[in-house]
C-alpha cells in the first residue's frame, strides 16, 4: 500500500479488474472473454485479408473497412490479453511504463477509429449523393490521405492525453478499479488537483468525439434527403441498407466512448465503468465485422471464396 504521510510515490498500479469475483465466476469470465476475443480476432483478421487481397472488393468502402478492422485488432489486443492473464494469475500489478503505454495505444486506436468512422460516412455520402463523381472525388490518393489523417491525429492525440493523465505525481492509492488503465480513473489517483486534467480530457473528448459526429450527422442528413427524393421505394431501401451497418457501428462505439469520457466522474463507479469499458474494448470490435458481413452480400461472397481457398489449400 502507498502512504501519503511518508511521501512515497507510486511506481506501479494494481488493476482490480474482476479479482473480487469468485473463482468460478472468474473461470466463466475467462472462457467467455477468450471466446469473444478469439472470435473478434478471427473475424477482423478475415476482413483484413479479404479486403486487401480480393480484387472484387477494390473500392474505397472496403479499403476503409479493412483499416477499421485493423484498428479493432490493435484496440482489443492492448487490453483483453492482459485481462485474460489477470483472470488466471493472482498478480495484477502493472508498471507505470506499461500503464502509460497501454493508455497511449488505447487512445491512439480509439481516436483514429472515431475519425475513420466519420470518413466512412463521408464516403457513403459521396457514393449516394454524387455517384457520377464518386471515382474522381474518392480516388486512391484521397483514400490514403484520409486514412493517414486518422492515424496521425490518433497517435498525436494519444501523446496529449497521456501527458494530461500522467503529468502529476501519484502518491495516493494505486488500485485502478477497472481491467485496464483508463484515463479518468488513473487521473483520480493523482496527488494534485485532478480537475484540470479531467477538464482537458473532457474538452478533448468533445473535439474528438463530437467533431466526427457532426460530419457523420451532416453526411447522413444529405443521404436521407437524397433517399427520400427517389421515386422507387425499392431503390430507397437498397440504398439505405448500405448505410445501416455503418450507423450501427457508430452508435455502439460512440455511446460507450461518450459515457466513459464525457460524463462527470461523480456519476461513475466500478459497476458502471466496467460494462461500458467492455462494450467498446471487446464487444464493439467483435460486432463490427459481424455487422458488416451479415448486411453485405459482397462481403459474404468474399468470405466464402476466401474460406473455400483455405479449405482447398
Automatic annotation (TrEMBL):
Purpose of the protein: Putative odorant or sperm cell receptor.
Membrane spanning residue stretches: 27-50, 62-84, 104-122, 142-160, 205-228, 240-262, 277-295
PROSITE patterns: G_PROTEIN_RECEP_F1_1, G_PROTEIN_RECEP_F1_2
Stated family: Belongs to the G-protein coupled receptor 1 family.
GO cellular component, as recorded: plasma membrane
Membrane topology: Multi-pass membrane protein
CDD domains membership: 7tmA_OR2-like
Record localization: Cell membrane
Keywords annotated in UniProt: Cell membrane, G-protein coupled receptor, Membrane, Olfaction, Receptor, Sensory transduction, Transducer, Transmembrane, Transmembrane helix
Signal peptide: none
Top-level taxon: Eukaryota
Every G-protein coupled receptors family 1 profile domain range: 43-292
Gene Ontology MF term list: G protein-coupled receptor activity; olfactory receptor activity
Listed InterPro entries: GPCR_Rhodpsn (IPR000276), GPCR_Rhodpsn_7TM (IPR017452), Olfact_rcpt (IPR000725)
Keyword DNA-binding: no
Protein name as catalogued: Olfactory receptor
Amino acid at each position: 500500500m502507498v502512504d501519503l504521510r511518508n511521501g512515497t510515490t507510486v511506481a506501479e498500479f494494481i488493476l482490480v479488474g474482476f479479482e473480487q469475483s469468485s473463482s468460478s465466476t472468474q473461470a466463466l469470465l475467462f472462457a467467455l472473454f477468450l471466446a469473444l476475443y478469439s472470435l473478434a480476432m478471427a473475424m477482423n483478421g478475415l476482413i483484413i485479408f479479404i479486403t486487401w487481397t480480393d480484387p472484387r472488393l477494390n473500392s474505397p468502402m472496403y479499403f476503409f473497412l479493412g483499416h477499421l478492422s485493423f484498428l479493432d485488432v490493435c484496440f482489443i489486443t492492448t487490453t483483453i490479453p492482459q485481462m485474460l492473464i489477470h483472470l488466471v494469475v493472482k498478480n495484477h500489478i502493472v508498471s507505470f511504463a506499461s500503464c502509460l503505454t497501454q493508455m497511449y495505444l488505447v487512445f491512439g486506436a480509439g481516436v483514429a477509429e472515431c475519425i475513420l468512422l466519420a470518413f466512412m460516412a463521408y464516403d457513403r455520402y459521396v457514393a449516394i449523393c454524387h455517384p457520377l463523381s464518386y471515382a474522381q472525388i474518392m480516388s486512391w490518393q484521397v483514400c490514403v490521405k484520409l486514412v493517414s489523417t486518422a492515424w496521425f491525429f490518433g497517435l498525436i492525440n494519444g501523446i496529449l492525453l497521456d501527458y494530461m493523465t500522467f503529468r502529476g505525481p501519484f502518491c495516493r492509492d494505486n488500485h485502478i478499479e477497472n481491467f485496464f488503465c483508463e484515463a479518468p480513473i488513473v487521473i483520480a489517483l493523482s496527488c494534485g488537483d485532478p480537475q484540470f486534467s479531467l477538464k482537458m480530457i473532457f474538452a478533448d473528448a468533445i473535439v474528438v468525439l463530437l467533431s466526427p459526429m457532426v460530419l457523420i450527422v451532416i453526411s447522413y442528413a444529405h443521404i436521407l434527403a437524397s433517399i427520400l427524393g427517389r421515386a422507387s421505394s425499392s431503390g430507397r431501401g437498397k440504398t439505405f441498407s448500405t448505410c445501416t451497418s455503418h450507423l450501427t457501428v457508430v452508435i455502439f462505439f460512440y455511446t460507450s466512448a461518450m459515457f466513459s469520457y464525457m460524463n462527470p466522474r461523480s456519476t461513475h463507479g466500478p459497476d458502471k465503468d466496467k460494462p461500458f469499458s467492455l462494450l467498446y474494448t471487446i464487444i464493439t470490435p467483435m460486432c463490427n465485422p459481424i455487422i458488416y458481413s451479415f448486411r453485405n452480400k459482397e462481403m459474404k461472397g468474399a468470405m466464402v471464396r476466401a474460406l473455400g481457398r483455405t479449405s482447398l489449400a
